[in-house]
């Protein structure tokens, strides 16, 4: 009978694993929350990152239950997550009842991985403290001060493109736009000339590409980290590449030392962090580096993808492009041909184009929150328990025909003051909302506006034989990014 023992052990072990998965994957069923049927061991995320994007899973859940329940469940492997399908509930989570949803389910390990301790990932009081200290950086006054710097980079961008189109009018604009935003962030955050427009292989551009295109871990490992953050912190698991950390820590240390030794003040993002360090003595070099790193990776990638999608839609909608150019020329004529901060603010149609681009292509497809204590959903039997990850599906809401007629059509008129006033405020969530919305939204919109104005004033954008229609998205990236390059014909005016 001894020969039976190994088989009994294996059978018992496999049975225990099966029971574990069945129990974990019945979490929502036991709470009467509607959900799509999960599968062992993937839950509902089988194929995500390979055959389809995370937005497709969230959209499937949203559309299956939006008319039946204000919430719906899903499983990321064995971890339960909640999809919000009701706009009023979304508003309560982001604004009215924000104190229940202060945190994001984002991993950070400040001790072993200092750049991961940035404001996007920090929790509780630590987040509140950093947020309150950094908010003055992004006031309209600060934006106005940074405006000429961005215009200078945009002018260099235009000159570089003029040289490029003399050789070939068909350009891969996704990379060009990333180089533009890299140079903008380098100047405004670090006070450094990155010069990636002149040389696409400069270190700043290389590190930005590595941070997004060549992450430290595979999606499988990242999912394990997401599900077991406390264990991973205990094990000292890092998420930022060592070479990226070494580069940014070095840049920050050198910049701090240089400015202090030479008493240099630039009134940029780094300056405010230095002043906070001096006046309150509570920001370490590592904390400063983490915030600057966030400003860099968030600022260059999201704005460059937004500009990419804007140019794509303008190439397909010539009437919209012509109307935008007419507004640009008319406003610049009033301002003696100079792109000033006041001139930009008068270009309302440009602003509507950017909003409509963000509606169709939100860089972050869902707003993430995590409960800090049990939360009773108003006028329902549901209770969202502590530490549950909550997703508000921005991509799905912004392409919902209930809120936007013919939602796949690009129509900047949707963001006229009258149209916006007639819609629920939660129908546009590309920057989030409430106390934990995107702190850099003014900066992001400004650098996108300046880039778009400069391009349309100097060039005509057209589709070409290499333009992929309809747009295809990369399944492997967390943010909403096009698959491959974005080829467009660029013609000087």
Automatic annotation (TrEMBL):
Protein name as catalogued: Cytochrome P450
Gene3D superfamilies linked: Cytochrome P450
Family indicated by similarity: Belongs to the cytochrome P450 family.
Biological role stated in the UniProt entry: May be involved in the metabolism of insect hormones and in the breakdown of synthetic insecticides.
Cross-referenced InterPro entries: Cyt_P450, Cyt_P450_CS, Cyt_P450_E_grp-I, Cyt_P450_sf, Insect_CytP450_Detox
Pfam family, one: p450
Any one annotated GO CC term: endoplasmic reticulum membrane
Residue spans crossing the bilayer: 6-21
Subcellular location per the Swiss-Prot or TrEMBL entry: Endoplasmic reticulum membrane; Microsome membrane
Chief site of localization: endoplasmic reticulum
Positions bound to heme: 438
Alphabetized UniProt keyword annotations: Endoplasmic reticulum, Heme, Iron, Membrane, Metal-binding, Microsome, Monooxygenase, Oxidoreductase, Transmembrane, Transmembrane helix
